Amino acid sequence: MSPVNDNYGKKGLVSAKHRIAMAKLALETSDWIRVDPWESEQETWTETVKVLRHHYNESLRLLRSRKELMKNKWPIERSTEDSLSYHNSVLPELKLLCGADFLQTFKTPNLWKEEHIKEIVEKFGLVCISRAGSDPAQYINESALLTKFQHNIFLVKEWIQNEISATQIRCALCRGLSVKYLLPDSVISYIAQHNIYTEESERKNEGDLLQPLKLQNTTVNPLND
Questions:
Q1: CB atoms within 10 A of CB 46
Q2: d(Cα 60, Cα 54) in Å, to the nearest integer?
Q3: N or C: which end of the chain has fewer CB within 10 A?
Q4: What are the tens digits of pLDDT across the range 64-115?
Q5: What span, in angstroms and rounded, lies between the C-alpha atoms of 44 and 215?
Q6: Distance CA 107, CA 21 (A)
Q7: How far is Cα 98 from Cα 180, in angstroms, rounded to an integer?
Q8: Taking each helix axis from N to C terminus, what angle separates 16-26 and 185-194, rounded to the nearest 10 degrees?
């Protein structure tokens, strides 16, 4: 999980330090999901494709370090399994996990650069979780680019659908309603302790453009000296 930078500009986006802390609390019982703060720690918002490049390069670095470690083992210490792993290691794969409605944002004018969409679906790939009201297959069919690389877009159907909405949870918190059983108790306690989701916090960045839209407007309409 990679929480977005504070400068993304989304309405109601609370501080990254709180979002990271809550995500870590929520994942305390998971042995395969972790939170990475790199994206949120950058000086400004980082485009999604650059975040993917960073994590892919980190995966390569870790793989090389592991190979060097095995290479430096004394032959007598190196197990058969290690030897096979060393000689037959493959490059890591990195895919962007998202809700199915995420595909629809590719059509939002100026939100994405075409070359970035291409790199994401061609080099990395997507894993899209089904969501009520979204038709990812239709989104793919409506885009020549997504259709071309649909072999690298994996659609996951949730047979027991989870319609818990972060927006609805924040709305409930603002109204003082209980979110018991919708969030881990540790996260609920953290929210109460830091008084995070309030009517005031929900107005943060209200009326502002998202950072990618701001950057696009700056490119299209440069100021004259």
A1: 21
A2: 10
A3: C
A4: 888 787 777 655 555 555 554 555 567 889 999 999 989 999 999 999 999 9
A5: 12
A6: 32
A7: 25
A8: 160
Other CB atoms within 10 A of residue 218 CB? 10
Tell me the pLDDT tens digit for each residue of 147-187: 999 999 999 998 888 888 899 999 999 999 999 999 999 99
Q: Per-residue pLDDT tens for 24-33?
A: 999 999 999 9
Give kind and range of the element (H or E) at residue 212: helix 211-220
- CA distances from residue 116 to 25, 36, 198 in whole angstroms, order as listed: 32, 22, 35
Cα dist. 107→41, 111, 146 in Å? 28, 8, 11
Sign of the four-CA dihedral 222, 223, 224, 225? negative
Q: Please, are residues 12 and 205 in contact by the beta-carbon 8 Å criterion? A: yes
Residue linked to tokens 């960045």: 205
- Cα distance between residue 167 and residue 12, in whole Å: 10
Token pair, residue 182, equals 């919708």
Q: What is the pTM of this model?
A: 0.86
Q: Considering only CA atoms, which of 41, 25, 43 is closest in space to residue 33?
A: 25
CB 60 within 8 A of CB 91: yes
Q: Compute the distance between CA of residue 18 and CA of residue 23 in angstroms, rounded to an integer.
A: 9
